[in-house]
Amino acid sequence: MKIDLRGKNILLGVTGSISAYKACEVARLFIKSGASVQVVMTPSAERFVSSLTFEALTRNQVLTENSESWATKLNHIDIGKSADLFVIAPTTANTINKLSKGIADNILLQTALAFNKPLLIAPSANTNMIENHYTVGSLKMLTVNEVTIISPQSKLLACGDEGNGGLAEPLEIFYQTAKQLLISDFWRDRKVVVTGGGTREKIDDVRYLSNFSSGKMANSLATALYLKGADVCLITTANHPNIPNEIYTIDVEDAEEMMEYTIDSIRVAKKGKMSRATMNSSQP
Question: What is the pTM of this model?
Answer without folding.
Answer: 0.91
